Fold these 2 entries.
Entry 1:
Amino acid sequence: MLEIINASLKLGGKELFKGLTFSLKEGDVVCIRGNSGCGKTTLLKAILGFLPLDEGVISCNGEPINAESAEVFRGMMTYIPQELALPSENVADMVKLPFTLKANRERKYSKLDLMKEWGKLNLSEDLYDKKVSQLSGGQRQRIMISVSGMLGKLIILADEPTSALDAETSALVADYFQSLAAKGAIVVAVSHDNNFANRCNMIVNI
Amino acid sequence: MGTIDITYGSLVIGLLLLLIPLYFFYKFGATLVKSTIIAAARMVVQLFLIGLYLKYLFAWNSPLINLLWVMIMVFVASATATKRTGLKRKLVFIPLCVGLFTTALFVGLYFLIFVVHLEHPFEARYFIPIMGILMGNMLGVNVMALNTYYDGLQRERQLYYYLLGNGASHVEAIAPFVRQAMEKAFSPCIANMAVMGIVSLPGTMIGQILGGSDPDVAIKYQMLIIVITFTASMLSLMITIYFANKNSFDNYGRLLEVKKKS
């Protein structure tokens, strides 16, 4: 259970959101919507425990996420930033990076499993042997999403996961998140994409 | 066999060689003429002063004074490194002091006690030059590594947050940036080590040979000088980064403002 209770946050004197309350249980896929600069990404960062709220509480399974507890809760999360260049030359190395972290060691990396996830996201197996620089933005986004899916975490946080995708592929990503939620995950995605939002169980406008 | 002394007249004749690079800087409009003249003047004055105070240090030969001298070297090196990195003083000055001082003493004394087998490891003739050579090398590596480390963290914040957001501990999240810093700072040292004796004849060895030492002795000293400077550079960097990190991130793991406002 992930709860955001009466959350308020200002950045640089500007109020981003106030009195924000919603709760999510396993199986939920929520889309956070709002105008640019309204604090959608900041909310994700607050859930990750990267910054404190001015008011309110974010809790996971009844325990508040704060500076002291953040590292433990991050072990239960996976985060997909909007644009990210991982320091790997090859796709094969890029996808393995999160599996090298201690918190994810129980999750064994398998190329076979990755290819199954890629199939669901309409990614060609050939991409595995390419250089990261040869990928399109949309391919890189979906690869990152597939890696997060493989980590099998309780909470999946995605920042604009479909920003580089067409409507058809965006629907594919929404369905992929639904499949992860069906296995017990909670998905929180920030998106401007209405096509994607309409395929989520819940929309939170901020 | 002693070293042939250079008279002050000959020293001036030697220094005249600097006119050649100065001419080319001038001819091609490089903005280095003034800074080269200032640097050369500083070098001459500083080395004359060093010659003077080394005479006293060697004459007194007091462990306490020698240690005090090392503390002054650490203080100056830390202040220089802080300035050259452009990082906030409160962030790196103390970590640099701790890193340079503890490493110089540990590695320097290890060398003097267990390798050279000195009866009095604080003997000025050995202790001061070894500390000096360690300090010079540690300074260069720390400046380059700290610059690379903090530039990387600032430029690639997304990667840092990605790793934390996927369960990385703080050490795991900063690891790519430490790795980049090491690779950039140590690559020249490794390249230099690899061509030692073929492409370059290093200073310690030349100094010893000119001072009348047997080449067999000189090469052994040279090898170990390279090893102790390499080790000390790494150890001091790790200590400096460890302590600097305590002031670089807030409780939430966010990187604070690290550069001085220009």
Entry 2:
Amino acid sequence: MPKAQLFITCLADQFYTKTLQNMTELLERLGVELVFPPEQTCCGQPLFNNGFEDKTRAVARNFLRSFGQSDAPIVGPSGSCVGMVKHHYLELFPEGTPEHEQALDITSRIYEFTEYVVNVLKETDLGAVYPHKVTYHASCHYLREMGLKTEAKTLINAVQGLEFVQLHEEETCCGFGGAFSVTYPEVSGSMVGNKVKNIIASGAETVITTEPGCLMNIAGGLRKSESPIRAMHIIDLLATKEGAA
Amino acid sequence: MTNPVLENIRRSLGRTDRSPVGLRPAIYTPRQPQTVDAELSLFFDELQKLAGVGAVVNPADIAAKLKELVETQEIKKATLWHTPLIGKLGIEEMLRSLGVELVPENAPKTELAHCDLGVTEADYILPETGTIVLHASAEMPRATSLLPRVHLALTTPDMLRPDLHQVFAEGKGNSYMVFISGPSRTADIELTTALGVHGPKDLYVWMVRK
Amino acid sequence: MSGRPVYVDFAGYTENVPPSIPAAVQLATARLAGGRAARVAELPEWEELRQIASDIRAHTIQHMDAYLTKFEQNFTAAGGQIHFAATDKDACQIVTDIAKEHGVKTAVKSKSMATEEIGLNDALAKAGIQAIETDLGEYIIQLAGTGPSHILAPAVHLKKEEIADIFTEKLGVDAPPDPQQLTRIARETLRAEFLKADMGISGGNFLIAETGTLVMVTNEGNGRMVSTMPELQVAIVGFDKIIPDWESLTIFLKLLARSATGQKMSTYTQFITGPRRSDDEGGPKEFHIVIIDNGRSKILKDPVGRDVLKCIRCSACANNCPVYQNVGGFAYGWFISGPIGAIYTPQILDTQAARELPFASTLCGACGDVCPVKIPIPDILRHLRRRVAEGDEFAEPSMPASIRAAAGVTSFALSQAWLYRLGSKILLTVTSIIQPYPLTRWTKIRPLPAFSAKFRGWWKSRKDGAK
């Protein structure tokens, strides 16, 4: 029976309890034995992306410690958080540093959720039912840093009853950018405004994203525009059996 | 004599004037040509996309074509290169017989600026991008293809070159070379294309072939 | 806009972007980015070309001095006169001296970002020399008295009606709001200037070390005019424009126009090796090149930051940047905008003056994907963020102490699980009463979801229940 460690991310921890619960139940249904290291806090990305590399190390060390207790792979609901660990921890702990071996180990076994389901568990149909028009926003780090170009759409297209509509400028940034959204709120607002305009124009009832950060931003933007369109994390979509007995 | 800029560069790179230069990374294999007809067809397609006017012309038909150009473009004054192909075709006499006033190609620029037509040859043709290549010299002044509002370039199929590599290999020794890919253009106003900004508004390329 | 900014206030500018700017800029960027995408789709070898181009630029940077020396030798042998300027003031002095020596009253200029970088027009004006911009977009903004809003299409923020008004007012002609007519007016007005100008000032896209050749990539014909009509030509070029040889140029010419405007080749590309060889040929009798440093040699010390010197000024990064599309070029405070501006300006000026620019990005990565020479722009942005936040061997930190202190606190809180959990509970309580700063900066734009943070409790009770 495969085993995996839950990496819940600080954002989802604060705002998306339901999504984390869904992730837990989906993975267990797929036969994965789950572990939740309670000492985990954050991957350190907010500090790292804002230039505080030295200050990131303390946080990263806690990550390595929390997830180093088990040798099971680590799964998280965010391409940017997973990407931070996978692609930047070795920059933080290069050869010669005491944490280097641990970082090598951890970075070799960390996965984003859709990546884990499609590429490791080799599953595509999770039995979800969602009879609605759905569109997809490709999150920047998920797409470019993690290189996940097809996994999300594969899972979306396997959902029963779902009608997929293409989003114009699907790969254009929604304007979250972490601290950017509060450092330059007006620019962030313009960018999410464009994204919301495109979502509305797509005719979709629901927009799916793989990123808690994008989700916060886009959901907020849709509410601000008083649009009835729902923004959902892909995990929540995959956990839905709408209309099923 | 020290050059402080070069010295700063060396210091930043940790080099001296004796430091070696490694081999430059390799370039990929250049394009191979297709048949002459295919290359010509490609060239004229691309030229047309750029709003240039291209044609294969039989030497016997040049006089008629020239008459047509002079009439439609209302050519009153022209300047031309005295280069072999232009001489062989008798362009100068043809223009004179059409009543076009001829200005020597080395006339002052203020006179050349009043010419409606400039006739040159093209030293190379690059089909992929619809480009003609001109050298410059005393016999082939730069302004002939620049100042007049209509530019006519005459050439032959053996000026075709498959790729930039060949043009550069052959042409790099010249002190001046210009690639011309269509008429002068801008999109600076609301991204709307406008032709004939400072260079010629009309470009004709005649491929002379029996 | 010329002369070095004292401080680039990205936050201040972007708080109130005039709404006409994003609309106009997006019109341009959509066209240019779309054109580029179409050309890229036609070339299956595109990624291979990018890699080779990147490798050649990296190699050239590592051997910069040798190639510049070679260029100097060859250009001089061809009859050219070469000058090296360490600073922008030196460069302006050299050009002004050349102009004064030749009794120059008016000069015609073709588009050159290097001349904007050094503030040449102002320096010449102070010396009583009039420099007329002849690139249509530059001509328009010169008449309008503003700076460029885009690297390639500097007047893209202006509507044709505004341009017609500018022409009517400044040229005293009846100018209709039609691009073809406006272009014709510019052609006639500037032709007179080309013919009587004493000096031509240009930039340069590439310097070929192999033969001492200057390469100018243009579309309008003004570049050819500037380098053909006056008896004297001066080209101002950053030393990073050097390339080893003509073979290398085959790659760059395949990438440049396609990346910039979606053209397969720009209308006019000139390859000029020294002054004219005979009077009959036409072209300048005297040809000077001023090679500028202006801080580039300082950048060479930084193995990460110096990749910015690979840039071939195509603007693909800006055309594909959603931040740039929503703020336009003026937000970047200097002559160079978009992602490349965000990594160039902080390295050329002192970090403090441009400390906001590395943060003027969401790190989405679209720029890095389209850069024809594979500059890792997002990595360099983060590298410069570190310089601002923590300092490095090139600069002291310039981020306000309060933010750095807050980062320290955050780091500590996030590294201790108990403190993180405590902080989470406090946040849950506090936000049920008020919205503290910086959350208010989020909510001024869009609502925040509710804090819930119940997963840990849920997991624990599940585990306990399962026992």
